[in-house]
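Work Package 4 report. The design task specified in the project plan requires that, given a folded chain encoded as structure tokens, an amino acid be chosen for each position. We show below one input record used in the internal validation round.
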């Protein structure tokens, strides 16, 4: 069982990682799509930090949510807004898809030889990164929606 103070600390760390993720996504999209010369090392660093922030936030959510989930689902969502349970489940599934994309981005970043990559490979890399950003925006929207229900 996790103490309340540790739970508050883990939740704060979850928010810090989410903020780092949002900043990393903004920097990465700017570096991948709006800069003429591709700076490989800068892009690799941004994508690695962003992917690690996503995975850290995802793993922390596994630690934190079991303490909120039974109360949230049983008392709040079922009683006040039963259709929000579906949003909660969709959020969990989308976050798992984002975790797989983050792992693929990390593998490609560290082992993909991106400094010698073709333009097609860079476009795929950028598309995966943008998809991770879209998933993050959807997850944050769902989180605000579920917090509004509480």
């Amino acid at each position: 069982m996790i103490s309340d103070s540790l739970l508050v600390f883990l939740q704060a760390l979850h928010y810090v990682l989410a903020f780092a993720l949002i900043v990393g996504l903004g920097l990465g999209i700017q570096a991948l799509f709006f800069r003429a010369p591709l700076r490989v090392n800068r892009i690799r660093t941004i994508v690695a930090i962003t992917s690690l922030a996503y995975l850290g936030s995802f793993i922390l959510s596994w630690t934190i949510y079991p303490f909120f989930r039974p109360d949230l689902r049983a008392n709040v969502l079922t009683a006040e807004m039963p259709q929000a349970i579906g949003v909660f489940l969709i959020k969990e599934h989308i976050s798992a898809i984002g975790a797989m994309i983050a792992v693929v981005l990390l593998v490609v970043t560290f082992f993909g030889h991106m400094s010698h990559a073709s333009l097609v490979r860079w476009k795929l890399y950028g598309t995966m990164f943008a998809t991770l950003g879209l998933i993050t925006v959807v997850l944050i929207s769902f989180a605000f929606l579920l917090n509004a229900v509480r």
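The chain has a mean pLDDT of 84. Validation will be extended to a larger panel in the next phase.
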